Amino acid sequence: MKPKKKKKRQLREAFAKFLQLTVPKRKSEGPFSGPLRSIAILAQEKLGDSILLTPLLKNLRAKFPDLAIHIITFTKASFNFFSADQDITAVHLVKYHPIRYFREVLSKEFDMLFNTKDHPSTNFLLQTALIRARYKVGHASEFHQGLYDHLITMEFHSHIAIKNCALLTLLGFPATREQCRPSLPPMPISDNIRKFLAEIKQKTIIGINLSAGQPNRKWQENSWISLLEMFPSKRFVALCSPEDQEEKLRIEQHCNQVIPSPPTRNLYEAGLIIAALKLLITPDTSLIHVASCSNTPVIGLYRKATQDISRFGPLLIPYEIVISETGEVSDISVKTLSSALLKGLHELTVQKEIFTALK
Question: Among 269, 318, 266, which Cα is nearest to 292's?
Answer without folding.
Answer: 318
